[in-house]
């Protein structure tokens, strides 16, 4: 299984999911996206294509070794996972998608990101939207505005291509999310052409992989993979 982390975050936010599925016998890859876990300046110098090519290369390598794979992601990582399922060159290599609070939209102000980036370089960060006390995400404290403009392009591209997603999708959505509107999951469910299974996360905020519903999510993901990823694809 290939897992994709979110915008300004790192594999740390996805490690509990990766470790859970590895313990169940799945081979899991969790790449670090370009510009992440380094510096806000490095992230500002990247483009959405850099993030996508990173996970695409990882998906191709994993599929060459294991056959058809599952891809999963949180937030921007969910959008990347869906973008992989849209890619015609990956058709037949991806058997299922698990998207957790996938991002599809940004506030209207993000439309101005490219224009204001030379003047306003960063905005307040979005990390650690977690209901569980004591849990903390390793994420940048500030958002590079140039990177927000790239995120907007990724979301727009992925949203336009949702009709190309024909593989089964497990769509997990937090009832309360201060980062991505829960209605973004409705956009995904309405746009894809494959079968959709919905999972409501009632006790977690955005970062569900580190929150109260993590075990529920992992159990549902493992069951979903068992149903839809053919052996030996992944384990």
Structure report:
The chain is of the alpha/beta class and 235 residues long. 37% of the residues lie in helices and 14% in strands. The protein has 8 helices and 7 strands; from the N terminus they run E-H-H-H-E-H-E-H-E-E-H-E-H-E-H. The strands form 2 sheets. Strands 1-2-3-6-7 form a 5-stranded parallel beta sheet, sandwiched between helices. Helix 3 packs across helix 4 and helix 4 crosses helix 6. The longest helix has 19 residues. The chain starts with a strand and ends in a 7-residue tail after the last helix.
Summarize this structure briefly.
By secondary structure, the protein is α/β, with parallel strands linked by helices. It has helices spanning 15-23, 40-44, 48-66, 76-86, 113-116, 145-160, 183-191, 214-228, and strands at residues 2-4, 69-74, 94-100, 122-124, 142-144, 169-174, 196-201. It is globular.
Key features?
235 residues; alpha/beta; five-stranded parallel β-sheet; two-stranded antiparallel ribbon; 8 helices; 7 strands; globular
How many helix segments?
Answer: 8
Largest sheet, order of strands side by side? 1-2-3-6-7
**Helix amount:** 25-40%
* Overall mean confidence score, pLDDT: 93
Strand content: 5-15%
What would you report as the Rg, rounded to the nearest angstrom?
Answer: 16 Å
Largest sheet, if any?
5 strands, parallel
Dominant shape:
globular
Topology:
Blueprint: E1 2-4, H1 15-23, H2 40-44, H3 48-66, E2 69-74, H4 76-86, E3 94-100, H5 113-116, E4 122-124, E5 142-144, H6 145-160, E6 169-174, H7 183-191, E7 196-201, H8 214-228
Parallel strand pairs: 1-2, 2-3, 3-6, 6-7
Antiparallel strand pairs: 4-5
């Amino acid at each position: 299984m290939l897992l994709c982390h979110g915008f300004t975050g790192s594999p740390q936010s996805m490690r509990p999911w990766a470790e859970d599925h590895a313990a169940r016998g799945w081979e899991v890859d969790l790449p670090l996206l370009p510009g992440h876990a380094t510096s806000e300046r490095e992230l500002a110098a990247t483009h959405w294509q850099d993030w996508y090519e990173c996970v695409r290369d990882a998906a191709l390598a994993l599929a060459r070794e294991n056959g058809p794979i599952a891809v999963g992601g949180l937030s921007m990582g969910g959008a990347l996972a869906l973008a992989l399922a849209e890619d015609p060159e990956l058709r037949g290599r991806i058997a299922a998608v698990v998207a957790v609070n996938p991002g599809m939209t940004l506030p209207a102000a993000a439309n101005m990101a490219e224009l204001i980036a030379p003047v306003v370089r960063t905005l307040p960060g979005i990390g650690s939207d977690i209901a569980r006390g004591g849990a903390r995400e390793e994420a940048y404290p500030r958002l590079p505005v140039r990177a927000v403009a790239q995120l907007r392009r990724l979301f727009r591209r992925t949203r336009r291509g949702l009709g190309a997603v024909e593989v089964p999708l497990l769509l997990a959505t937090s009832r309360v999310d201060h980062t991505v509107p829960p209605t973004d999951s409705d956009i995904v469910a309405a746009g894809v052409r494959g079968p959709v299974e919905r999972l409501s996360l009632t006790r977690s905020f955005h970062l569900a992989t580190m929150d109260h519903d993590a075990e529920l999510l992992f159990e549902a993901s493992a069951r979903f993979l068992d149903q839809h990823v053919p052996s030996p694809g992944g384990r």
